[in-house]
Amino acid sequence: MNYLEELLEGVEVKWKPLGEKENGVAVLSRGRVMSKVYLADNVGKYPVFSSQTANNGEIGKITTYDFDGESVTWTTDGANAGTVFHRKGKFSITNVCGLIKIKDEKELNYKFLFYWLSIEAKKHVYSGMGNPKLMSNQMAKIPVPIPSLQIQQKIVDILDTFTELAAELAAELAAELTARKQQFEYYREQLLSFDKNEAKHLPMGDESLGEFIRGKRFVKNDIIDEGVPTIHYGEMYTHYGTWANQTKSFVSKELVDRKKLRLAEKGDVVIVAAGETIEDIGQGTAWLGNEGVVIHDACFYYKSNINPKYVAYFTRTRQFHDQIKKHIRTGKISAINSKGLGKAIIPIPSPEEQERIVSILDKFDTLTSSISEGLPKEIELRQKQYEYYRSKLLDFSN
């Protein structure tokens, strides 16, 4: 018999409804309407929590508070309906939140109730008119197991430990990822910097060097699951790194022919030319696929005899962005044209040196990417482990 089985063996458990007037273990109430204008006009030190889950649900701070002490809150409406939070201190909640105050703390531990509702509340969410809801009348009916306070505290201690360990691990992995990225960026800058005696320096748009060709317009609705490989400009920010040989999107051959869409070929570098942030504009991805790839009109593809990965790495350096940012037109959507990109001076060492630099940076890129991929996987694994033990510790079905 393992520790968890021993902990719960023979435990007596009473079951009571959460919020029913007669037998309920808690009193339920709701928050109040607070507009953005109200929050802006009453800025203070006491947090206001709403339906979001980011930042622990906090949407601002005001000069007053509606609640003080320990409680559990839950989201009543929207995509996060049924999400619960353990609260302490002075705070307020908006009208899309509910508040739970335990009637007798000698009977029920707030943190134990929070952990129980973290499992149970979502089961009671309903989608009326397509909008998920968990209103007070439904919340009040949720059955709550009540073992002894000693058992409740032991369960809370175990789950708190899992939560803390998971947070510490995530922080360590995030710090490792940040350090590796900084190291990678440092060496990328160093390896792609040459003085005039070490390498030729030419404008990227020099006719003897290369050519920028703009893609042609298509829309997201044109994207399909199979067909001609395609890169939409928005994917350059979210999906593609220094190089690619496959795409996540496709368009039909009929669309390519009808709109005369333009395709980059193997060895070309796709460069994003529009976006919301200036820093992301100009990032390049070397296309190494064996077939042509359709390019969106908010991108260019760069044809040259330079190593395509070398070019792609260069477009991600500070020295490149310092040159092109003066040519970026700013606004709601910032953009740069081929003339602006073409003015950037690129150092051009020998082909052998280009290959050597790419080989080194590829190793750094692989290491950084493996940590980037490993971080969410590790966090997901820890979350599943935590949920497994939470379910075991809160299983009073026997």
What key phrases describe this protein's structure?
Adenine-n6-DNA-methyltransferase TaqI, Chain A, domain 2, 398 residues, 5-stranded mixed beta sheet, 4-stranded antiparallel beta sheet, 25 strands, elongated, 2 domains, alpha+beta, single chain, 24% strand
Question: Can you describe this structure?
Answer:
By secondary structure, the protein is of the alpha+beta class. It has two domains: 13-147, DNA methylase specificity domains (Adenine-n6-DNA-methyltransferase TaqI, Chain A, domain 2, Alpha-Beta Complex); 200-348, Adenine-n6-DNA-methyltransferase TaqI, Chain A, domain 2. The chain has eleven helices and 25 strands. The strands form eight sheets. A five-stranded mixed beta sheet has the order 14-23-19-21-16. Strand 3 and strand 4 form a beta hairpin. Helix 5 runs antiparallel to helix 11. It is elongated, with a radius of gyration of 29 Å.
Helix content: 25-40%
The CATH first-level class of the largest domain comes to: Alpha Beta
Q: How many runs of DSSP E, i.e. beta strands?
A: 25
Predict the CATH topology of the largest domain.
Adenine-n6-DNA-methyltransferase TaqI, Chain A, domain 2
- Through-space gap between termini: 16 Å
Structural class: alpha+beta
Instruction: Write down the Rg.
Output: 29 Å
Query: Roughly what fraction of the amino acids lie in strands?
Result: 15-25%
User: Number of domains in the coordinates?
Assistant: 2
Number of helices: 11
Largest sheet: 5 strands, mixed
> Strand order of the main beta sheet, please?
14-23-19-21-16
